[in-house]
Design goal:
Keywords: Hydrolase, Metal-binding, Zinc. Its cofactor is Zn(2+). It comes from Frondihabitans sucicola. This is Mycofactocin system creatinine amidohydrolase family protein MftE. This protein is an alpha/beta fold. It has a single domain (8-226), classed as Creatininase (Rossmann fold). It has six helices and five strands; from the N terminus they run ββαβαβαβααα. Strands 1-3-2-4-5 form a five-stranded parallel beta sheet, with helices on both faces. The protein is globular. 45% of the residues are buried.
Length: 238
């Protein structure tokens, strides 16, 4: 029988004897949704996985990175062809059963979330699973001061992570109003009602160098969050 791998383990490419005992399991949660005319549908999933991998490389002990959950709650992008949204109910069921299954061998489960539309459900699942007695948490992939969607932040990240997937010649400004100003209309009518090209921000000036720095900041934020002794404020189910 093979010995468990040291450091972090990529679950998808491992075999069962290589899975360490009671590891921390990071589950990247993303989406398959439009990201303007210049970024691919898997942008959120790519970022979530990169952050989870960066965290796994940083933390001590045995860490497993699970396969990315690539479908999320993306109904606000449904007016753009290509978007696949499974909605909050299906996402809830998927995440609940993921935790219950992982709890058979994992020590702790943490969702590393790369899509804002998943947050309500992720928080709800964490609260419910804690009530069942599972050791579960979540952390967002956020950049303080970053723009909302397909702008400078995500374009820079993708230029660093997947430059071949970026159609930089098609990058153009989108809606740059503060999110709190456009959120009511976007909630009622979707992203296309506030931004015909699907961009919330301005990707102009994005670069791989900025993306490398943004990723490091995101990874550091998740590491610091997981190092705190106090649990996140998820005891109230929305």
């Amino acid at each position: 029988m093979a010995a468990p791998l040291t450091g972090w383990t990529e679950l998808a490419s491992a075999t069962w004897p290589e899975v360490p005992e009671s590891p921390l399991v990071l589950v990247p949660t993303g989406s398959t949704e439009q990201h303007g005319p210049h970024l691919p549908f898997h942008t959120d999933s790519v970022v979530a996985r990169a952050v989870a991998t960066g965290v796994a490389e940083t933390l001590p002990g045995q860490v497993v990175v699970a396969p990315t959950i690539a479908f999320g709650a993306s109904g606000e992008h449904a007016d753009f062809p290509g978007t696949i949204s499974i909605g909050h109910d299906a996402l809830h069921a998927l995440l609940v059963e993921t935790v219950r299954s992982l709890d058979l061998w994992a020590g702790r489960v943490v969702f590393v979330n790369g899509h804002g539309g998943n947050v309500v459900t992720v928080r709800r699942v964490v609260a419910e699973m804690r009530a069942e007695g599972h050791d579960v948490d979540w952390a967002p992939c956020v950049l303080p001061g970053g723009d909302a969607h397909a702008g400078l932040t995500e374009t820079s990240l993708m230029l660093h992570l997947r430059p071949g997937d970026v159609r930089i010649d098609l990058a153009e400004p989108g809606e740059s109003a503060p999110l709190e100003e456009i959120l009511p209309l976007m909630t009622r009518s979707g992203v296309r009602a506030v931004s015909p090209n699907g961009i919330l921000g301005d990707p102009t000036g994005a670069s791989a160098a900025q993306g490398r720095e943004f990723l490091a900041t995101m990874v550091d934020g998740v590491v610091r969050r997981l190092a705190t002794t106090a649990p996140p404020p998820v005891t109230t189910i929305p």
